[in-house]
Amino acid sequence: MLTLVGQGQSNDEIANTLFLSPLTAKTHVSRIMTKLAARDRAQLVVIAYDETGLVIAGARAQP
Known about the structure:
CATH superfamily: Winged helix-like DNA-binding domain superfamily/Winged helix DNA-binding domain
Strand content: under 5%
Number of helices: 4
Radius of gyration: 11 Å
CATH class: Mainly Alpha
Number of domains: 1
Distance between the termini: 15 Å
Order of helices and strands: HHHH
Structural class: mainly alpha
Largest sheet: none
Number of strands: 0
Shape: globular
Helix content: 55-70%
């Protein structure tokens, strides 16, 4: 989930990718934000890039 947020996907796109409802995707993103004490999605992207290494700059998402 964090990887998909880090790749810039919206809740709807995440839902389609993971075969979830958009509300479920939104709930998971919100819970990740709470657990990581992130203020917003932008901070989640920073965490995905800098702190976890889940997303590599310039790497394309796999279909």
